[in-house]
Structures are given as C-alpha cells and as structure tokens.
C-alpha cells in the first residue's frame, strides 16, 4: 500500500478547521499551514496541532515533507499557489472556483498538463455526495426520460465575513455566483447534461452595508443571483441563489418527459409520469459531528462533500480509488469560469450572452470546443 503524502494547508477558514481532523483520521500527515496573517496561521496551528505555520507561501510550497497542497485561501491566490506547486512536482487540491477569471484558470490548466501524473483537482464537493451520484445514475438510466429542465434554488444567510475582506468584493471572488453558483454550474456537468452555450443573468447586491462594514467601504458582491442557462441541446437550467435569508437550504429539481427527480439537501426522491406520489430514492441519515457553525460559506451539505472528498484522496493515493468517482479537473474550472464571465456580462448588458471558453490557442465557443467533464 502506498504511503499517503504529507499535506500543506493554505487558509484558516472554517473549512480548514473541519478538514484537518478528517485528514488525520484517514491517515494523512498535516505538516504545515499558511495564513494571510502570521497571527491567523499561529492560532490555527495551535488549535489544530500542526507543527509548522507561516504567512509566506514559499515556506509551505517548498517543504520537503509536503507533497500535497490543499488550497482553501482567497481565489486571488488559487492560480499563484497551484502553478508554483505543480511546476515543482506537487499535487494540488484547490477550492472553487479555481482563480478569479479564465486567464488564471487557463494558467492552472497549462501547469497541470505539464505533469499529468500529478493530482490537480478542484474542490467541487457536490460530486462526492451520494444523492447526487444517485441522481446522475437515475438520469442515465432514463428514469425521467429526456431532460427538459433543471431548476436549482438555494436560500441562505449573508455570505460576508465579520470584517471587510475579499468576500465583500465580486472582483476578488466574493458573492453568490462565485461561491455557490460555480458549484451548481459544475453540478450540471457532473450530472451529464450538455454544456452551457448561452446565458442570461440578474446579479444584485441588495445589502451594501451592515453593522461591521460601512463608511467608505461598501459591499459589491452579489447576494442575489437569478440565472438562466441554455444548454447545447436546448434544455434550460434555472438557478436562483438568495443570500438574504437565514440558515441554508438547497433543492435541485430535474424534470423530464417521463417524470422528475428532486435532490433536497442530502435526500433524493422521484416521480414518474402517471404516479400519484413521490418515490423515496435516498435518505441522508449520516450524522456529522462538528463543533463548527454551519454558515452559508460552509453548510452541512458542503461539509459532508468535503469529508467524502478526503475519502477519495485517501483511495487515490493508496490505489483503492473507486472508478465511479470522477473529481473536477482544472479544465472544468476553466469552463466554469467561462460560464460565470458570460453571466456577469449578461447582468451588465441585460442581454443573452454566448459562452466562450479560452483554449491554449486562443478562444473557442463552448458550442464547439466543450468536452464532457461529467
């Protein structure tokens, strides 16, 4: 059995405090942690019992006892750390959405291609959830016939931090589209649906100040995202994210000519045309023990996906990988960025906008260049 790699963590967010104990439980060694401020790194290292902490990126990337980097830092650092790590032969798991734009995502794709034997994946954790895997299977087995509509609704509380940070600025990767919408765009691919070719969006910032953020600094990230995505075969996907509520709820509905499937939270139910009631297909009874508060940035469903992603990593490095699990690679991150850029453009122009994905040779329309990332 192969030895598990030593891990370096970038970030001090809630996700870090959740994933480190899980990594250790699965047999990984967490050797180092980086924080934006030295004090943040020191506090996290002390609480999580990590032997080395720093506020300098290279101090973690260049450590000889670190072979896998898990990046849970601000999107502005995703490309910088990923590219540097891959170029010196280290594995990378990067948080969504994988950079700030297509240019950064393309740099990550090229770096990953340089050493194809290295693991280079994005933490789109919905792919690892049992109800989403079953949803994909039921669709493939024609449970609902030809898909006609995918309708996704997310309601949650404010996604802002206690102080002004990148979370307040859409250009720095904050906002409902970047942090939650990117997950849903990736999910459409995972479910085996065709690529998005045209989009229409309304992105709004309903709350521009709060008791902690005000004065000359105002919130510019979207807390309401109303998205329409036209897929290559004409199927429509509607996504509505409202970050002005309390708690967290998520529902993914897929309608077809023969019925519908509903993934609500971690559960799944379905109904075929002619039936009188929904059929329960999966009930999420898994308990999750954590002292962390379940914020919109890290709801329970995201935590469970994160834990299952760690299972995938363990199996990947010990040779026990489940062939049914397919993570999101960096090229999928480039595709997601292209859809988000089109959505932002649509919101500004109030028009339908075509999705154009960059390639190494230049740019290409998603209609002709997209390949399956399911």
Element-level helix/strand string: EHEHEHEHEHEHEHEEEEEEEHEHEEEH
The total of beta strands comes to 18
* Strand arrangement, major sheet: 14-13-12-11-7-10-9-8-16
Structural class by helix and strand composition: alpha/beta
Helix content bin: 25-40%
CATH level-4 homologous superfamily of the largest domain: Dihydrodipicolinate Reductase, domain 2
Distance between the ends: 29 Å
* Count of DSSP-assigned helices: 10
Query: What is the third-level CATH name, the topology of the largest domain?
Result: Dihydrodipicolinate Reductase, domain 2
Low-pLDDT segments: 365-374
Mean pLDDT: 89
DSSP strand content: 25-35%
> In the residues, how many domains can be counted?
2
Structural features, described:
The structure is a single chain. The protein is of the alpha/beta class and 374 residues long. The chain folds into two domains: 6-125, 3-Layer(aba) Sandwich (Rossmann fold), CATH 3.40.50.720; 130-285 and 330-359, 2-Layer Sandwich (Dihydrodipicolinate Reductase, domain 2). The protein is 32% helix and 26% strand. The chain has ten helices and 18 strands. The strands form three sheets. The protein has a nine-stranded mixed sheet with strand order 14-13-12-11-7-10-9-8-16. Strand 12 (259-264) and strand 13 (267-272) form a beta hairpin. Helix 5 (102-114) runs antiparallel to helix 9 (330-349) and helix 7 (176-190) packs across helix 9. The longest helix has 20 residues, at 330-349. The protein is globular and about 60 Å long. The two termini are 29 Å apart.
């Amino acid at each position: 059995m192969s030895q598990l790699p030593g891990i370096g963590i970038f970030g001090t967010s809630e996700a870090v405090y959740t994933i480190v104990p899980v990594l250790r439980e699965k047999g990984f060694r967490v050797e180092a942690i980086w924080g934006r401020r030295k004090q943040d790194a020191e506090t996290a290292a002390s609480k999580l019992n990590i032997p080395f902490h720093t506020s300098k990126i290279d101090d973690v990337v260049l450590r000889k006892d670190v072979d896998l980097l898990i990046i849970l830092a601000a999107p502005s650092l995703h490309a910088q750390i990923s590219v540097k790590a891959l170029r010196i032969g280290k594995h990378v798991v990067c948080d969504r959405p994988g950079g700030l734009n297509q240019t950064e995502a393309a740099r990550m794709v090229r770096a990953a291609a340089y050493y194809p034997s290295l693991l280079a994946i994005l933490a789109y954790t919905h792919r690892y959830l049992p109800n989403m895997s079953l949803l994909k299977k039921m669709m493939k087995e024609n449970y609902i016939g030809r898909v006609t509509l995918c309708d996704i609704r997310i309601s949650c509380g404010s996604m802002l931090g206690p102080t002004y940070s990148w979370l307040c600025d859409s250009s720095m990767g904050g906002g409902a589209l970047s942090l939650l919408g990117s997950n849903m765009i990736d999910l459409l691919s995972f479910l085996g649906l065709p690529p998005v070719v045209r989009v229409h969006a309304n992105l709004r910032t309903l709350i521009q100040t709060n008791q902690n953020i005000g004065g000359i600094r105002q919130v510019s990230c979207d807390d309401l995202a109303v998205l329409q995505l036209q897929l290559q075969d004409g199927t429509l996907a509607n996504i509505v994210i409202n970050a002005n509520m309390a708690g967290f709820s998520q529902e993914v509905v897929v309608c077809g000519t023969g019925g519908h499937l509903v993934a609500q939270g971690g559960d799944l139910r379905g109904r075929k045309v002619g039936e009188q009631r929904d059929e329960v297909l999966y009930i999420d009874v898994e308990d999750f023990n954590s002292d962390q508060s379940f914020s919109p940035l890290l709801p329970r469903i995201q935590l469970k996906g994160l834990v299952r992603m760690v299972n995938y990593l363990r199996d990947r490095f010990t040779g026990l990988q489940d062939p049914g699990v397919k993570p999101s690679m960096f090229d999928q991150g480039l595709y997601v960025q292209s859809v988000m850029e089109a959505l932002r453009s649509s919101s500004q122009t109030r028009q339908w906008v075509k999705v154009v994905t960059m390639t190494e040779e230049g740019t290409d329309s998603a209609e002709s260049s997209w390949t399956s990332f399911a």
